[in-house]
Amino acid sequence: MNRLSKKTGDAVSDRQDFDLIVVGAGSGGVRLARMSAAKGARVAVVESRYLGGTCVNVGCVPKKLFVYGSHAGEDIEDAAGYGWNVPGDQVSFDWTRLVANKNAEIERLNGIYGRMLANAGVTVIEGTATLTDAHTVVVGERSYTAKHITIATGSWPVVPDVPGKECVLTSNEMFYLPQLPRQAVVWGGGYIAVEFAGILAGLGVETTLLYRGDLFLRGFDDDVREFTAQEMRKKGVDLRFGVNIESIESEDTHYNVNLTDGSRLNTGLVMAATGRRALVDGLGLEALGVQLSASGHVVVDDHFQSAVPSITALGDVIGTPQLTPVALAQGMVLSRRLFGDGQGEMDYTCIPTAVFCQPNIGTVGLTEAEAREAGHKLRIYRSEFKPMKHTLSGRDERSLMKLVVDADTDRVLGAHMVGPDAGEITQGIAVALKAGATKAQFDSTIGIHPTSAEEFVTMREPVA
Q1: Which of 104, 158, 234, 442 is the most exposed, fewest CB within 10 Å of its CB?
Q2: Overall average pLDDT of the 112-129 stretch
Q3: What sign has the CA pseudo-torsion 451, 454, 455, 456?
């Protein structure tokens, strides 16, 4: 984040309505509001859509539920290898039931968020916020004042400007799709694209993933990227790299997707997962002197301070890693700085993450390429194997585990996995890397047998 020269804000009145107004009730905003209220601050949250933000409503939570649903079909098929009789003609899937059950769970979580805020003494204001000065937020016809205002409005999907873009859905709409198509095109190469391609394919949709680059999941370890592509193709996803969408034409209930390589796809659905932008529309930030970056994010310093002293920002809107736990941690740090002892710093190193494609990806620390670029002399440990479950299921699915080790210090710089429960396994490994664990300490740790996770402590010979 950039260091800023501070602009003098408006004088703070002794009669502010609140100590803090948080604009946005997503993960980071809610955490900031609750923790600040617990410290005795008078806090309000303004939200125009839904409590819980993207993660709870159209992101992490419903996505993971859809992943579970799409993987259930494989579990049913695999049961035959374990002695269960599963007549294929008696197994069916009801998309509308999955969506309805998901909606009920999200409504339950919305209620929990509302009760958490109420129990913490936070005032929830429903509506769209506009900042009219450094201490005033207008919602509808009412104005509210506060000593501090935090922007926590998150981000929103972006669809490239191509002819026919009005035919394209984003992840927002996918969570409420009335029915599944027979064919689908997923456009993009990041987390969301890869995850939705797996969801659709797992539910029986003929799925094509298009990405303009040579290989998807840019920023992940190259072995992980290549291995994931290999496994996704086994599951029937048609991966097409080095190609982009030129235009889309609607034809009855289908769409003709014209590609830059001259080919054409006929499909029942086109979903774009081509990036997200900071959601700052209508807030009036620039008029107050709050700086926005070239990418549209709110520019803040390392303490989440904007160019206007009374205005801070956190979460996706400031361009840090777009992960719910990052926003939660930022909320804790900012609350401490505003209403606690004034201390606390965010540490963005060694952040673990998972991609819930099929099989899952779990990763923490440096990729091999990043470590080499940083000048480390490396030892690379890598293992590929068939998970024990599939010795009887007969499924052609393999797992990958990889450790990136500094040859001079023996410190493990990165751990990467593709396989069942990779996210669950990597969370534990992340603690070890954060603590500075060495490969010798991995080696001296007794494994849990028989598990896939034990492979992380039994890889003995480097492959590079």
Answers
A1: 104
A2: 97
A3: positive
The model's pTM is 0.94
Out of 135, 148, 297, 449, pick the active-site residue.
449
Q: What pLDDT does 225 receive?
A: 98
- Computed from CA positions of residues 46, 50, 55, 61, in that sequence, does the dihedral angle turn out positive or negative? positive
Which pLDDT value is given to residue 3? 33
- How far is the C-alpha of 65 from the C-alpha of 85, rounded, in Å? 26
Q: What percent of the chain has pLDDT over 70?
A: 97
- Is 303 known to be catalytic? no
Q: How confident is the model at residue 14 (pLDDT cuts 50, 70, 90)?
A: low
| Mean pLDDT value across residues 78-97 | 91
